[in-house]
Amino acid sequence: MSANLWVEQFRALHARARKGPMSEEEKRRYIAAREQFARALTAAQGMRLPPGQSARRSFRIAQGLQVDLAFAAGPMKAMTLDVSVGGFSVMLHKPPAESEEPAFTLRLPGNQEPVKGKAKVVSVQRKIGTHRVSFSTHGVTEKDTERLETALFDLALERIK
Fold first, then answer.
1. What are the pLDDT digits (tens) for 8-60?
2. For residue 124, what are the contacts with CB-CB under 8 A and spacing of at least 6?
3. In the chain, alpha helices (H)
4. How far apart are CA 63 and CA 47, in angstroms?
5. Is 136 left (phi over 0), alpha (psi -120 to 50) or beta?
6. Could you give the dihedral angle defined by the CA atoms of residues 22, 34, 65 and 48, in that order, rounded to the nearest 10 degrees?
7. Least enclosed by CB within 10 Å: which of 51, 71, 130, 139?
């Protein structure tokens, strides 16, 4: 099967899953297809997954989404540079302390409810006049994790014509 045909079949299966309940067989097939699609994305991004780690929870999408961060010094709004189920990166004028774990609210595309949780600094890269700060996330409900993962697949599929 060609890659284009497979993507179109996955796109149709993804749209079906967004519409409502699926049979157990459809659901199993859909979850397997999501993992296969995510593995292709992580490979294209040059990422190596540790054995047993799900690609669905690792692939990144370069996407600007509004994120509100609640730092000890006060709230801050930022736009993501990239997003995965496990974290996001933003540009900040001043990096937070590495020990700080701000609450975050990530706005999803459309009128979806935002995803909320806590963020932990995993890296800071100094740029000219600013800093790229990458966060891992935790404390996100399973329901929000699933909604974020689905939104990331939506964004990935939008880019493939």
1. 999 999 999 989 899 999 999 999 999 898 888 888 887 787 677 777 777 88
2. 95, 98, 131, 132, 133, 134
3. 3-19, 24-44, 142-159
4. 18
5. beta
6. 160
7. 51
